[in-house]
Automatic annotation (TrEMBL):
Pfam (any one): Transp_cyt_pur
Tree of life domain: Bacteria
Annotated family: Belongs to the purine-cytosine permease (2.A.39) family.
Identification of the protein by name: Cytosine permease
Lineage per the UniProt record: Bacteria, Bacillati, Actinomycetota, Actinomycetes, Micrococcales
Keywords: Membrane, Transmembrane, Transmembrane helix, Transport
Keyword check for Transmembrane: yes
Residue ranges of the TM segments: 31-55, 67-91, 112-134, 154-174, 181-198, 218-240, 252-276, 296-319, 339-359, 365-390, 410-429, 457-478
Length: 491
């Protein structure tokens, strides 16, 4: 957003409110970080996830036709990033990180619970993206006939970790400059990939895809929502906080939503066309979502593909590690922001080592991660978005750290909504994919609610994510209007 960022220094801002003199840019500048973080070719792999094709073996429990998958992809991506756009309003009004502004709804110390959840979510995402970058590098090396073994993977992991952690430690201005470069390079190379992939599309195979049930469509929609906008919603105000408070609210919502949704909406639909055309490609994507995409490429484009894949994944991981560091500070850990980013980098590398060298596949643990954390995060998002929409004035900056201020110490009603939404949500989702097996206790309400139990038609619709979102939002709209008005009146 800055027209001339100073990339020579490390950002020292942590959970501080951004000073008026440091606020800069326009809402239009939000397009760059959001587009760069989501132009990753991982969006192509979601085409396989959305179709949920089994081809004789159980995979994700739902299947959709070409039309259903296309509608679900566009609607799910756009709506989920609209949620990010709403949360970004708070950044413009309060000039503080998302999980600091969340204190207005949960209380200063009460907000430590959602801050911890946010930290786990963002560390999980940066781990997933770093792992995919390493797996993609290994696959490209194999396709070129080079060594794709342990040494190659270790070197790739070191390079990816250096880029992600280095940018996370450097901070906002370096990230904004890096994201602009990534946007241009990855956008151009992604377009080339799509052009080269078009001959692999088989209209006959696509036309033969059977239509899925209502439950299948809902499950695919939830998967898209949790995989895209809901994965970013807890960090959506971290970049709008640098905007002047006079910036257009509508502009903040639009450029956040548009920047985040544009690339994924197109890429997922293209991914649907590719996965629906080839059983072999669909099966390969489940094991190596990025590397599998190289199997339909000419050899001369493998190196450029590796570049676009790694840069796109790094772009997303950089935003995640920046926001995860802020979430860690918001949870009450008292260390400098650059140190927090470094700590998160250690967890990211450890997680990536497990996924790359020990996990049997990528999709199973990734799906379990999205569903399990998606429920409490959706409940928090519902509470926070409702709180943002109820407000009409800027936040009282100095009181966001004061347990005796207008926002209070612990707001039990908001915490109660997250707990209730999570309890209901986990009861309406399933994680019986076998990885990890200790999550198989979920889905305990599917039977009592008459939805067929863990093996019924609604087992994989993952209604719990939507239920948690609605519980948090509606509960706050109905119960917090008065408290918000008293806060804004200074009471």
């Amino acid at each position: 957003m800055s027209t001339a960022p100073d990339v020579r220094t490390v950002e020292r801002q942590g959970t501080d409110v951004i000073a008026e003199s440091d606020r800069k840019g326009t809402p239009r500048g939000l397009f760059w970080p959001w587009f760069a973080a989501n132009v990753s070719v991982l969006g192509l792999s979601y085409g396989s996830f959305v179709l949920g094709l089994s081809y004789g073996s159980f995979v994700l429990g739902f299947g959709t036709s070409l039309l259903q998958a296309t509608v679900v992809s566009v609607v799910g991506v756009a709506f989920s990033f609209l949620l990010c756009g709403i949360v970004a309003i708070a950044g413009k009004r309060g000039s503080a990180p998302t999980m600091v502004l969340s204190r207005a709804a949960f209380g200063v110390r009460g907000n430590r619970l959602p801050s911890f959840l946010s930290w786990v979510l963002t560390v999980g995402w940066e781990t997933a993206l770093a792992s995919l970058a390493v797996l993609a590098t290994s696959t490209v090396f194999r396709e070129l006939g080079w060594d794709d073994g342990v040494v190659t993977k270790l070197v790739a992991l070191l390079v990816v970790a250096a880029l992600v952690v280095g940018a996370g430690i450097a901070g906002f201005d370096v990230i904004m400059r890096l994201q602009t470069v990534i946007t241009v390079v990855t956008a151009v190379l992604t377009v080339v990939y799509v052009v080269l992939a078009v001959p692999s599309i088989d209209p006959g195979a696509l036309g033969a895809l059977p239509a899925g049930s209502t439950q299948n469509v809902v499950g695919a929609l939830v998967l898209v929502m949790t995989g895209f906008g809901l994965g970013w919603v807890n960090a959506a105000a971290d970049y709008s906080r640098y905007l002047p408070r006079s910036s257009s609210t509508g502009g903040v919502v639009w450029w956040t939503t548009f920047g985040g949704a544009l690339a994924p909406a197109v890429l997922v639909v293209v991914g649907v066309l590719l996965a629906g055309s080839s059983k072999d490609l669909d099966a390969a994507i489940r094991i190596d979502p990025i590397g599998a995409l190289t199997t339909i490429l000419p050899v001369w484009f493998l190196i450029p593909f590796a570049l676009v894949a790694i840069l796109g994944l790094v772009g997303g991981a950089v935003l995640d590690i920046y926001s995860s560091g802020l979430a860690l500070l918001s949870a009450g850990v008292r260390i400098p922001r650059p140190v927090a980013a470094g700590v998160d980098g250690v967890f990211m590398v450890a997680g990536a080592v497990y996924v790359v060298f020990f996990a049997k596949d990528f999709v199973s643990p990734f799906q379990a991660f999205l569903v399990t954390l998606g429920v409490p995060v959706a409940a928090w998002a519902g509470v926070f978005m409702a709180d943002v929409l109820l407000r009409r004035r800027a936040y009282a900056d100095t009181e966001l750290d004061d347990v005796r201020g207008r926002y209070g110490d612990v707001r039990w009603s908001a915490i109660g909504l997250v707990v209730l939404g999570t309890a209901l949500g986990w009861g309406l989702v399933t994680n019986t994919y076998g990885v990890p097996a200790w999550l198989n206790w979920q889905g305990y309400l599917l039977g009592p609610f008459g939805l067929g139990g863990r093996t019924g038609a609604w087992a994989y619709a993952n209604l719990g994510v939507l239920v948690a979102l609605v519980v948090g939002f509606v509960g706050t709209v109905l119960g917090a209007r008065g408290s918000v008005r008293r806060q804004e009146a200074g009471a």
